[in-house]
Design brief:
103 residues; alpha+beta; 2 helices
Length: 103
């Protein structure tokens, strides 16, 4: 008997969730771009009434992690995202090239 592809995907996703929970608890606080990097006083910001699903690279302390998130706002160079880990919502600003649109 072979293993179920669907079951393997489920276990892979669960392992990723557990890893993200560990990072959120132990690696340090979620990093976000600074006011100086965002320069919101010099460039317009777009707020999306229908957030778009994305995959994004974030950092908890020095630890990078890729998360499933929603894009809720953006500037010319940065994006504001939201994502949930262990029923806690996180929000941060990251560079736009750290994000990939999903479907």
């Amino acid at each position: 008997m072979g293993t179920s592809k669907r079951l393997a995907e489920h276990y892979d996703l669960r392992a990723e969730e557990k890893q993200l929970e560990r990072y959120a608890k132990t690696a340090g606080s979620l990093q976000s771009l600074s006011d100086r990097e965002l320069a919101l006083d010099k460039q317009p910001m777009t707020v999306y009434p229908q957030p778009q699903r994305v995959k994004a690279w974030v950092r908890f302390g020095p630890q990078p992690a890729r998360v499933n998130a929603v894009l809720v706002r953006s500037t010319e160079t940065a994006v504001g995202i939201e994502f949930v880990i262990a029923e806690k919502t996180y929000r941060c600003w990251i560079w736009g090239n750290a994000v990939e649109l999903v479907g």
